[in-house]
Amino acid sequence: MSAPARVRRPTRSEVEDLLFAEAELLDAWDLDTWLTLYTSDSRYVVPATDVPDGDPTTDLVLIDDDRLRMTLRVERLNSRKAHREYPHSKCRHLVTNVRVGEPDGDEIPVRASFIVWRTRNGKDSTWVGGYTYRLVERDGALRIRSKRVELDMSSLRPANDVAVIL
Amino acid sequence: MTVLDGLVGTGSRLVVEEPERFRVHRDSMMSPEILAEEHAKIFEHNWLYVGHESEIANPGDYVRRRVGGRPVFMVRGAKSGKVNVFHNSCTHRGAVVCRQDRGNAKVFQCFYHAWTFDSEGTLSGVPDREAYGGTLDWEGLALRSVARVESYRGFVFCCYDPEVVGLVEYLAGAKDYLDLIIDAAPADMEIVRGTNEYGMDANWKLLVENSIDGYHAVSTHDTYFKYLVALGTDLSVGVTGTAHDLGNGHAVLEYEAPWGRPVAKWEPLFGEDAKASVDGLRAGLVERFGEERAHRMADLNRNMLIYPNLIVNDIMALTVRTFVPTAPDHMEVTAWEMAPREEQPDVRQRRLDSFLTFLGPGGFATPDDIEALESCQQGFTSGGVEWNDISRGMTREPRANDEAQMRAFWRRWRADMDRVDRTVNP
User: Fold this and answer.
1) Are residues B260 and B147 located together in one domain of the fold?
2) Inter-CA distances, B112 with A83, B95, B104, Å
3) Confidence bin at A2 (pLDDT 50/70/90)
4) B411 and B365: one domain?
5) How far is residue B409's CA from residue B306's CA, in Å, rounded to a whole number?
6) What are the residues whose beta carbons fall under 8 Å from the beta carbon of B58, sequence distance 6 or more?
7) Are B52 and B106 part of one and the same domain?
8) Which residues of A fall within a CB distance of 8 Å from B194?
9) Which residue of chain A is at minimal alpha-carbon distance from B356?
């Protein structure tokens, strides 16, 4: 068996286009389109604030979604019965400090910093942290295979919850 | 007993019980004076949950906690092996001596003047001690232990009141329910790595009520039940059960529900691979405890309140949750997941999934609970309505979706708040 072909390392602009598009879709609450940025074997993980290196197979985390659960999360957030997010908050995802790593097999590792603001019902919440992505190329376009969100906050308390997609 | 006992106190003013009607005044949820009184009369005099012994398994292991709003830390003494809970304050000039959330330490050194204490609290180092000319009270300046510390089957509690009754007596009927949970584990229980530390802009007692409230599940958690159905859970069985007053303000709901339980109740969501191991767990329970107790352990869910602020929910996962008010309309919540040691990885995975999707602040249900409680808190400020009604099920044998369990809490709250021999700290 030969090792999987190493993919071309995309430019930072190409990666930023994808990340900024994701931010825009999340801010617009166009979650169905947001899902199309992800591969069919995707994963979205947010570790607990006290164990940022947490492994969702053995540790308690805040979010551990495979593609099915991502789909069900979107279904929930599109519903009028997701009381925490109905009506939807105003959100703003800021993505910055994007660093593109050396391709690893067919995956391109990417790191970025983020701030997400949620304003709703007179209260502002902020989440701050780092994104770690693993991107792959599908039909000539970059897609997200995994997104891991490590929060810098010493606890989730200032934001109370993490009901939006970070 | 004093002659003042007959007078109507804060509790009786705010909790009014008639034969078919139970009401709680909304001032109890909004007033800073009431919160101060709660600190003085409730959090200072009842046993409060600190942590689980599995979190400090080895000598010198420690965790830092806020208990009843006060910074303390729990450490396994290196010499005695005993669980110590200390006020987190240097006996010299006051700085906190334990400044990390967890770890292992031989000594705790105050960085301010470098006084050093060991894991038993003994003062072991004072720089330039000669300056005291041999008069330093080494014993008197040891770290101050919280007045009472006891643990029941791994659950560590402390109390700031040295006169409090023993922990087992305090736990009353809740003890049997803790036994049920702990006995069901094939090995010791442990707290899983990873803590849910979140908050709510709501009064802490709203979370007491919500954590043991079967009535809101269908209306509030529609999206969670849809999620379960999408994964193949058959909800047609419904949720049926009873509520029990366990004494001293503790209460429990016990009920049958459609979802699987990692204790020993398989469902398709666990996957075919896990069926044999889960069935094996069940057979083990029947062997050890007989059919009836095994059925309770495996099939029945329990949402339990240990007064005033510990929730042990043994449902599709096992949560240990505590919370502390920081304002009349804000609380800090800390939740841990508990599981048997050396659990099969596939069963553990289901347990983890169940916890974060239902019980976690990023899941499909808890954010909606937060919204509900914050919504109540906002509604209170509208005024016009003075009382909450908590009468559901008063005229029948209480069911799991009635409010008997909340009344058990409020009766104890009323009794604590009526006490006149406990003054409010300035």
Assistant:
1) no
2) 48, 7, 21
3) low
4) yes
5) 9
6) B76, B104
7) yes
8) 47-48, 50-51, 54, 59-61
9) A62
Architecture of the domain defined by A12-154: Roll (3.10)
Mean pLDDT, rounded, for A60-86: 97
One domain, residues B235 and B361? yes
For chain B, what is the domain count? 2
**Residue B105's CATH number:** 2.102.10.10
Are the beta carbons of B56 and B62 closer than 8 angstroms?
Answer: yes
**Per-residue model confidence as pLDDT tens digits over B155-182:** 999 999 999 999 999 999 999 999 999 9
Please indicate, yes or no, whether residues B286 and B410 belong to a single structural domain of this protein. Answer: yes
Q: Of A4-13, A114-123, B51-60, which range is least confident?
A: A4-13
Per CB distance under 8 Å, which residues of B are interface residues toward A?
101, 192-201, 220, 222-223, 226-227, 230-231, 332, 336-337, 345, 348-349, 352-353, 355-357, 360-364, 366-368, 370-372, 378
Q: Is A156–B230 a contact, with Cβ atoms under 8 angstroms apart? A: no
Q: What is the CATH number of the domain that holds B258?
A: 3.90.380.10
Q: Considering the entire predicted model, what is its pTM?
A: 0.95
Q: For B96-138, how does the pLDDT look when each residue is reduced to its tens digit (9 = 90+)?
A: 999 999 999 999 999 999 999 999 999 999 999 999 999 999 9
Q: Is B294 exposed, middle or buried (0-12, 13-18, 19+ CB in 10 A)?
A: buried
Which among A46, A49, A55, A60 is the top mutation candidate for probing chain B, defined by the most B β-carbons within 10 Å of its own β-carbon? A60
Tell me whether residues B198 and A156 touch, CB distance under 8 A. Answer: yes
Mean pLDDT of the A87-113 span: 97
Same domain, B197 and B77: no
Closest Cβ–Cβ partner in A47, A49, A84 for B367: A84
Pick from A113, A122, A64, A63: nearest CA to A89: A122
